Structure prediction request, 94 residues.
Amino acid sequence: MLGAKDLSDTTIIRTLKIVMSIGIVFILLGVYFHMFNETIEEMGVTGILISAIFVALGMIMSLPTKMFLTFVLVNREQELAEKDAVHEGRAQKD
Prediction:
C-alpha cells in the first residue's frame, strides 16, 4: 500500500477532484430524489431519509474542496514569491 510520502501532488489533486465530483453528483442526486422522484415520495419517511443520506454523503465528500483550494492558493503564492525574488534579484544587478 502506498504511504503519504509516495503520492505526488498531481495524484493527490486528481484524487481530490474525483472525490469532489462524486460528492457534487451525490448532492444533486439527493435533491433530485427529494424534489422530482415519485418513488421516493411514495416511500414516505424512508424516502426522505434516502434523499437526505445522499445529500449528506455528497456534502461530506465535497469537503476536500477547501483543502484543494488552499493547496492551489499556497502553490500560487509560492510561485509568485519566487518570481518576485527572481525579478528583484535582476533589478538589483542592473
Q: What stands out?
A: Helices lie at 9-36, 38-42, 45-61, 64-93. Residues 64-93 form the longest helix (30 residues). The two ends are 52 Å apart (CA to CA).
